[in-house]
Amino acid sequence: MIPSEVTWFSSPFLAALAPPDPDAVVATATEIVERQRHTAVDEPGLGILWFTALSIAGFRQLRETHDQEQSVEAFRHAFLDPFYAWVRDQTAAALDASANPVDVLREESKRREAHFFGRAFTFDRPQDDEHGYISVVRGCYYQRLLVAEGVPELLRTFCDFDTAWMDAADERRHGVRVERPTTFGYGGPSCWFVMTKLSEPAHA
User: Does the predicted TM-score (pTM) go above 0.90?
Assistant: First the structure.
């Protein structure tokens, strides 16, 4: 059974994916979770494991009836499209309401690092001050799971999930720049999230 804390993803994802046998997707995901459970070092890690296992299972069912390119594209739409507008709009609203939008990004990044990603990911923070925040992912649990299960080609789509909140930050409106110069999924040795305060927000 899919844990309740993962249904925020599983329900929209499976609806968008529209697999011919959703029960088989869940059964395959359960097998992956059992096989990889030893890698989940804490409660957030177990949530990440389920999130990733469902993704892999959905992709594998696509591969039964589609070629590789078609499967990756269909997976990408199901993985990203149901969430993009909601995440972008929620982030934009929070930035609009803040007198210091870079603090919104900083605090949300720290919250997710601690409570969503947990100890299965390794982070460095070379900058954390009034001028901005830099979070560097040195070790990625998504990558380890996808490689272990033989589907590293999905990692780029996992990386692109972050574009929703990144796109919400408007340099002129919020006075903050968000950059991601490198990620594991795009061939980099790490993932950099750089949030820089440029000016006071336009509504200040």
Answer: yes
